[in-house]
Specification:
The structure holds two protein chains of two kinds. By secondary structure, chain A is mostly beta strands. In chain A, 0% of the residues lie in helices and 48% in strands. Chain A is built from no helices and eleven strands. Chain B has a single domain, classed as Immunoglobulins (Immunoglobulin-like). In chain B, 0% of the residues lie in helices and 59% in strands. Classes of the chains: A mainly beta, B mainly beta.
Chain lengths: 116, 114
């Protein structure tokens, strides 16, 4: 399978703990995105990388959240001191190219986080 | 703020019927619109997109219509099948900061009954 992969698929943690999620994009894609999705809602943009550079962060990304893409390939999203409101599906997507014409972002299966 | 939203949260159809899922958007500056399908436990899957200078685009069993006058987008699925059961999201794309920024609506659940 050469699609976007995410690990773990599910994470249950206690409030106050730190969690880290990993995303492996499609190998030739230089753009990587993180989204958060709550039940019944569409994904909300969190942050965007082009290669290893984090170029945009949403206001949703509080100082407890940090994302990295150290070698321009896989990315990690860490949440420190988790809160119950962090419970959501965290989706990663990747895309290729520099053209405005290329619109398709390929999504991974997501990591479902439950904070108790 | 500007947003993309949907008229109907749930749509139930009979297998073989045509389905129409509607979406309203508010940002007239969007470059593209995309429909995504999301099955339970999976990430959104691209279905079809349409450029803002078009009013219709057809794919395999799906047609997207764009009415810029009333800022309305629809997805038509012909001969709906059980495998079409999913949540459908419309999303608008704005080219911002050197990349395509996706703004999703809340979603419509399509339930296909035999």
């Amino acid at each position: 399978d050469t699609g976007v992969s995410q690990d773990p698929r599910h994470k249950i943690t206690k409030r106050g703990q730190n969690v880290t999620f990993r995303c492996d994009p499609i190998s030739e894609h230089n753009r990587l995105y993180w989204y958060r999705q709550t039940l019944g809602q569409g994904p909300e943009f969190l942050t965007y990388f082009q290669n290893e550079a984090q170029l945009e962060k949403s206001r949703l990304l509080s100082d407890r959240f940090s994302a990295e893409r150290p070698k321009g390939s896989f990315s990690t999203l860490e949440i420190q001191r988790t809160e119950q409101g962090d419970s959501a599906m965290y989706l990663c997507a990747s895309s290729h190219g520099d053209s405005r014409v290329n619109n398709e972002q390929f999504f991974g299966p997501g990591t479902r986080l439950t904070v108790l | 703020g500007e947003s993309v939203g949907l008229h109907l949260p749930t749509l139930s159809v009979q297998e073989g019927d045509n389905s129409i899922i509607n979406c309203a958007y508010s940002n007239s500056a969007s470059d593209y619109f995309i429909w995504y399908k999301q099955e339970s436990g999976k990430g959104p899957q691209f279905i079809i997109d349409i450029r803002s200078n078009m009013d219709k685009r057809q794919g395999q069993r799906v047609t997207v219509l764009l009415n810029k006058t009333v800022k309305h987008l629809s997805l038509q699925i012909a001969a709906t099948q059980p495998g079409d059961s999913a949540v459908y999201f419309c999303a608008e794309i704005m080219f911002s900061g050197g990349y395509n920024k996706l703004i999703f609506g809340a979603g419509t659940r399509l339930a296909v009954h035999p």
